[in-house]
Amino acid sequence: MKLPFSRRTAVVGSASIVMLLTGGSIAGAAPAPESAALAAAPDIPVANVKVHLAQLQSIATANGGNRAHGRTGYRASLDYVKAKLDAAGFTTAVQQFTSSGRTGYNLVADWPGGDADHVVMAGSHLDSVTAGAGINDNGSGSAAVLETALAVSRAGYHPAKHLRFAWWGAEELGMVGSRYYVNNLSSANRARISGYLNFDMIGSPNPGYFVYDDDPTIEKTFKDYFAGLGVSTEIETEGDGRSDHAPFKNAGVPVGGLFSGADYVKTAAQAAKWGGTAGQAFDRCYHSSCDTSANIDDTALNRNADAVAYAVWTLSS
To answer: Which residues pair with residue 257 across a beta bridge?
Structure first.
């Protein structure tokens, strides 16, 4: 997740490479019956998600300790994700842009089939800050989205709507990659996106369970999932406008997502509800060198990864 505007560097993106782009509104669409969605959505093994996190950690370690925009660690991270998706039968495209004098990349993966006039997207930013490996921010979201995409392939899933997954570059510089992607969609292709689901920091070590309160249907989908687990949620406010859903929302696309907290401090009421430590940040290693593979709460990661899959299956059926 990027820093607030007062704490970040202003950037300008420019770019290349035309991609497969299609995209309608989840709002107003009849959701699938909850029982059917529960039966269809697979469990996402947290061990699989952690394998991807271990790979991202290894990539950072081998590339100066980070996976930041314009650095070798970022491109190696993208190549790792792309290879997994290509092997699983996705159609992938790399979109190139320039920011702060360095080349950046988005990765977009389309699953064959589904109604191309109604596209459900799930995405996360793949870059870290230069200070560290970025395993919670945002290896956690990137790995969960990747494993959900691979679960689509393993299941041979045939959704009614078209499924698209994305990994954004240069989010930490101000959502540069996702803004570039949205700005280069035609108005018709923008209108085809029924909803964009964003996952940024979903394994925080002192976690909260926060749901974006943007599109009501997407919000309800996530709340229903956590209610089924007996886990209370709160409306996400810490990261509002600070992650890759913002360019989509500003363009009129319905958005939603999940978040487990960054540098805000967990209250006593939240600790009573969720466990963890009151008076301590949700992620004490936010944007720091200690955001490593040790900086993950497995329970939060597991619950949120399963919620990613539940939403993808429910909203695309």
So the answer is: 198
Q: How do residues 214-264 score in pLDDT, each as one tens digit? A: 999 999 999 999 999 999 999 999 877 899 999 999 999 999 999 999 999
Amino acid letter, residue 69: H
Active site residue 219: no
Residue 254 CA to residue 225 CA, distance in Å, equals 19
Q: How far apart are CA 224 and CA 209, in angstroms?
A: 13
Catalytic residue among 34, 147, 171, 219: 171
Using the CB atoms, write b or e for 48-76: b if 16+ within 10 Å. ebbebbebbbebbeebebbbbbbbebbbb
Rounded distance, CA 48 to CA 189, Å?
Answer: 33
83's enclosing H/E stretch is helix 72-87
pTM: 0.90
Report the C-alpha gap between 132 and 222 in whole angstroms.
30
Task: Supply 26's token pair.
Answer: 């989840």
Helix (H) or strand (E) holding 59: helix 46-62
Retrieve residue 81's tokens: 């994700």
Looking at this protein, which amino acid is placed at residue 217?
T
